[in-house]
Amino acid sequence: MTITLLGFVVAKANNIDPGDGKGKKDELNGIVIHSETKKPLKDVSVTAYLVSKKEKVTTTDEEGNFAFDELKPGIYKFIFEKAGFKRITKDKVVIKTDEGFQLNIEMIESNDFDIMPSPFYFTEVK
Questions:
Q1: pLDDT tens-digit readout, 78-110
Q2: Per-residue model confidence (pLDDT) at position 13
Q3: Would you say 29 and 116 are in contact if contact means Cβ atoms under 8 Å apart?
């Protein structure tokens, strides 16, 4: 059985220097690109979950950028979805107070289909 790479995920924490004195609390941002072409992907749905509860949803812009502002501190799961691409899940992303976080994602096209047995397939009983 071959193992396929579902997505290359790079995540790194960055301290953000807001420069305005106010500070950007609990901000997460990043970019989503196509794994083969390295071009930005627009209209990717990005959902943030905190303790199995949906907190916020956003979509990527023309350049593949997304951002969440004012997330509550905690351990998040982020789900990236777009029609025609494999779903990416990034678990255990720690969001801290007064720190920024950058999450960059590469998505792979989904060319295969889930094949289910037909409900109309009958075996002959003897």
A1: 999 999 999 999 999 888 877 788 899 999 998
A2: 35
A3: no
Interatomic CA distance for residues 12 and 104, integer angstroms: 8
Domain range spanning residue 96?
7-17+24-107
Contact predicate 58/42, CB 8 Å: no
Number of domains in the chain: 1
**Backbone phi and psi for residue 52, each to the nearest 5 degrees, phi listed first:** 60, 15
Through-space distance between the first and last CA atoms of the chain, rounded to whole angstroms: 36
Angle at 33 between CA 32 and CA 39, to 5 degrees: 140
Residue-wise DSSP of 44-64: -EEEEEETTEEEEEEE--TTS
- Contact between 12 and 110 (Cβ < 8 Å): no
pTM: 0.68
The answer to the question of residue 123 being in a domain is no
